[in-house]
Each structure stands twice: as structure tokens, then as C-alpha cells.
Amino acid sequence: MTSTGPESPPEPHTQAADAEALPRAVADRFERRLEMTVPDRHNPKLHRVIELVNADDDLYALWLASNVNAVERLDMTDHGPVHVKIVMNIAVRLLRLLVDAGIQPGVVESYAMTKEDAEVVVALAALLHDIGISIHRDEHESFSLFLAADKLRGILPEIYVGPEETIIRSEILHAIIAHRSGGRPLTVEAGVVRIADALDMAKGRSRIPFEAGSLSIHSVSAAAVESVSIERGESHPVCITIELSNSAGLFQLDQLLRSKLKGSGLEPHLEVQARLGSEEKRLLTDFRL
Q1: Which domains does the chain have, with CATH numbers?
Q2: How far is CA 274 from CA 44, 152, 241, 246, in A?
Q3: What's the CA gap between 200 and 204, in Å, rounded?
Q4: pTM for the full predicted model
Q5: Segment-wise mean pLDDT, segments of 10 residues, the chain, 289 residues
Q6: For residue 198, what are the contacts with CB-CB under 8 A and spacing of at least 6?
């Protein structure tokens, strides 16, 4: 055997080299990366969670893969980074309004933890609830569980130690599985995530499949929802107001929101109202089977 001299040392591993090695389409998707933000209200634990989430390339890739399956392969509405960011912000706002009204989250009532810990539960459950779609839409809630458990073992030890980490992880996983159709939330946090998921119904979420020609009651009704507002209610702790441009949007309330609200445990605390503009916006000119 002949010698060719000493081998050259391997080049140092760099993020730039990683980017060049990625297929161009993947790199392009990462270049348009959406940063997760939520008002942290002087909650250092929540602030740290968002820092860790935004530094996690693997998690962002799971959100991208989920959206490819949902939007590009199944012609569904958005289930990627935009969706989970909206759901997280809705969930945190819902929780804060409920807490301000004297309603105790599960981690406070059962474990004497704090409302700040409850915010960590709903934020992470909202961010991780759909990552199972990266595997498949069918039974995605169950797939989300084992993917989320792996992610949480990397995130939570930065904030919690010992049994507290285990409790928070269990509460997050409960909120994830309880968001499924027929799910049974056993905590305020789980109910909040379930409702927040349903409240991401404004027209922007249907834009991609709707503009691509996917005409179904789901895409058309979502296109009819102009906005969703969540405020303190007069007769209930929370008032949810949904502005519609077309009565087709009532499907979102009657079939989707109603099913998520039922059994959420939050029914006594929420009031929901829909408002239709004086003139209905025309959404379709033709439809064929």
C-alpha cells in the first residue's frame, strides 16, 4: 500500500456550511424563518422558553414539514409556524383573562405552582400541538405526543429541575392530546389550547388553498372570517367576537368552534358572538363538483 501523505484536517463545522449543504428549497424556507414572539409580562420562564424555541432549528423544520403535508399535499389550511404562533398568542391571552377573573389553572390548583408556570404550559402546548402532522395528518395528535416529549426534554431542563420538570411536561402533553376531536381536557390550560386552536380561523389561514382553487366549505368559510377579537366580557370573563364578511363563515362557528368549545371545560367562562357586515362579500362566482 502506498502512502499519500498525512490527511488534511476536516474543515470546521459551520452554520454557513450547513446552509450550503441543504437542498435549495429547504434553505429558502429557512431564510423566511418566522420568529416566535408573545408578550411575556415579566414572566422570565416564558421569556426563556421563547428564546430556546427560536434557537431550535429541528423544531422549526418540524413546523415546515407539518405545513408541507397540510397545505401542499392535502390542500388544507395553514398548520405551520404562522398557525402555531397565532394559537400561542391566543392561548396566552385567554389564560390571562381567565386568571384575571379568578379562575385557577390546573398547575396552580393541583400543584401550588404559579400562573407563570401555567403560561409556560399553554405556550409550549400551543407551539407543539400540531408537529405530528410532519408525520401524517391522520392521528397527528398522537404523533405530536412523542415528538413533543422529545423536544420538551431539551427545553424544560433549562427552566425546571426534578419533579417540577416532569409535572410541567405531563401538563403540556395532556393539553396537546386534549386538542383532538373528541378530546377531553381536564385542566384550564388544556381547554385554553383547545379553544385557541379553533380560534385561528381568520381569512389569512385559508389564503393558500383558497387562492390555489381548493373550494370546500372549510376554505370558503374560513375566507369569510375577517377577524377574531378576544376581550374581557361583561357577563363572562372572556368575550370572543368574530367579524364575518359572508354568512358562510357561520360554518366555522357552528361546526368547528362549537365542537371545540363543547367539553373544553371553559363553556361557563366564554361568550361568543358573530357580526356580519351590512353587505355580504361575494366569495365565489362558480362552483362545480
Answers
A1: 43-276 (1.10.3210)
A2: 36, 37, 6, 11
A3: 9
A4: 0.84
A5: 44 45 75 93 95 97 93 82 95 98 98 98 97 90 92 98 98 94 91 94 57 60 85 95 84 80 93 83 57
A6: 256, 257, 259, 260, 261
